[in-house]
Design a protein that fits this description.
Length: 238
């Protein structure tokens, strides 16, 4: 479990500042949700934490280490995206184990790890299938499995459920919450969906126009919104 600390993090694209000085601490083991309207900078912020996007200024610490200039592979993070981009020609087993094979993990160890993860995610019966023979929810579980198998200190999720239908989304919300309880890893979860934020988060970070509007528990935001924006956003029906 690792703490994530952002200090005065900023990002410009050309002349446009899209992240305007973010200071934030995500506690070890916390399920932290970044929520805000489309274009407010959620993905950019997450990509900077992952190292996929370089910050313009500011610092990032993960587990007490300054990783501001570290490669993504050196940050102890795993990221799950909205379009989970599985390898279509590889089986579920190979998709989950892909990162391990890159890291030259011994075959026996790889088999054991992949099968443990598959069990956690109820994918045991599907290990030899190709992605096209899976449902949307199963595919998303494979993408999550690929992240878990690397045993990261911090999980980063970018709208992982937004391509699923409503029924599956609510089921996956429950599954992800259970997964967090089991793994007790630090998780940062990006969504534009207030319901996801309110039901899943230990802590919600409301973003608006590249700035943090408010940080708090779902109850704190609901009962004491700090700005009209937060009140409108959290309180509005979908
Ligand atoms: P969100 O994930 O909250 O929808 P993004 O982080 O994707 O928002 O985008 C924040 C802002 O940064 C938007 O105005 C977007 O157009 C801009 N932006 C994102 N990526 C780039 C890029 N590679 N080049 C230029 N502008 C970008
Ligand atoms: Mg986004």
């Amino acid at each position: 479990m690792s703490r994530v600390e952002l200090k005065d993090l900023r990002k410009n694209f050309g002349g446009l500042e899209v992240i305007k000085g973010v200071d934030l601490t995500v506690e070890p083991g916390e399920f932290c949700v970044f929520v805000g309207p489309s274009g407010c900078g959620k993905s950019t912020l997450l990509r900077m934490i992952s190292g996929l996007e370089e910050q313009s200024s500011g610092t990032i610490e993960i587990g007490g280490r300054d990783v501001t200039r570290s490669e993504p592979s050196e940050r102890g993070i795993a990221m799950v995206f909205q379009n989970y981009a599985l390898y279509p020609h590889l089986s579920v087993r190979e998709n989950i184990g892909f990162g391990l094979s890159l890291a030259r993990t011994p075959k026996d160890e790889m088999r054991r790890k992949v099968e443990t993860v598959a069990e956690t995610l109820q994918l045991t019966d599907y290990l030899e299938r190709k992605p096209k023979a899976l449902s949307g929810g199963q595919r998303q579980r494979v993408a999550i499995g690929r992240a878990i198998v690397r045993d990261p200190e911090v999980f980063l999720f970018d709208e992982p459920l937004s391509n699923l239908d409503a029924a599956l989304r609510s089921q996956m919300r429950i599954e992800l919450t259970e997964l967090h309880e089991r793994l007790r890893a630090t998780m940062i979860y990006v969504t534009h969906d207030q319901v996801e934020a309110m039901t899943m988060a230990d802590k919600i970070v409301v973003l608006n126009g590249g700035r943090i509007e408010q940080v708090g528990t779902p109850m704190e935001l609901y009962e004491r919104p700090a700005t009209p924006f937060v009140a409108g956003f959290i309180g509005s029906p979908r």
